Amino acid sequence: MLQRLKQDFHLAMLTLVGLIVLVCVTPFAIYRYFDGSYLIAIVDGILVVSTSSAVAYAWYTKQTKGAGFFVACLFCAGFVLVATGLGPAGLFWIFPFIVFIFFLVPPLRALLLLLLVLVSMLTITGFFPELIFADRFQMISFIVTSAVTSFFSYVFAYRTLLQRRLLEQMAAVDALTGAANRRQLDHALQFAARHLPAKQPNPAALLLLDLDHFKLINDTEGHQAGDLILIELVTLLEQHTRPADQVFRFGGEEFVVLLEGVTAEEARSVADKLRQLIADNLSSTERKVTASVGVASLLVDENWEQWLSRADMALYQAKSQGRNCVVMAAGSDTPAAANEVEVTVPYSS
Ligand SMILES: Nc1nc2c(ncn2[C@@H]2O[C@H](COP(=O)(O)OP(=O)(O)OP(=O)(O)O)[C@@H](O)[C@H]2O)c(=O)[nH]1
To answer: Transmembrane region positions (predicted)?
Structure first.
């Protein structure tokens, strides 16, 4: 549970707002009921029950955005009703309400909802001049203070959104090559191993690709030359795979290409196409660059670590067999039967 709250910002915010509403609004609902303000008590009660239901819905379905928007709209309607029922005494609720809204929906949407609230209140005031505001001065003070609070909340929420997006990108992408990073790879392999076998007979294959004698380029031509090769390699891999295929930097000069819905034979053919493309197109100023590839199709009942480890063993064999070749991991030809026959397909350089 804590793990989900840590990973899902929207769910954490929605839960927080739900808890605050439960703890802060419930006593008011009870007080209003005994005070005889039945309309306000009902509005408060609806707010508590609906917010709690929306939080439960978000936990159950993982649809946090829809639930957040629902709660935000509910708050808007609730606030207008509270202000109408309580008059000037209810106006102070606008300030926590403004902050809540920015926690629940994206900044621009929150600003538009707040504008809608303000327009609704002014329209009601047009018809019933003393229902919400005591006098014109109070109305102007309310408009100015709530507009200033909304504006600064918007700026803060927008800045936070940009920073969160940047952090998410930094946590997911390799800074040098722009490929998805090791963290993303672990998630993608876990997901594939857990969910794809139930969906299709040939769930997925991974190609573990390692540049040959890469250290030589670094040592003789410098680290920058090596960096350029890595960047070009990722471009090449991304250009020559399907949009649905994913390219990850595993670490150093090792990369993974994850192919969904392919047979072992198709995976082997993609691996050899990529190996050939690298040999034909990638070079530093002094030497041609080649790569060795280990290929493993996901087997039934195999976890992602075992899958990756088979690809790693196949890559190790490709290196031992002279490099610039593709080796199929044990069992990869029979993903449904998990048979342990090893098939190796070396290519000469
Ligand atoms: N330029 C550059 N080099 C890197 C980066 N990450 C790892 N390396 C280098 O990659 C090299 C890997 O060397 P080795 O593990 O010996 O592998 P290799 O020379 O490719 O030899 P084989 O894999 O056995 O063919 C090391 O020199 C690392 O410094 C990087 O981001 N940029």
So the answer is: 12-31, 37-60, 67-83, 112-133, 139-157
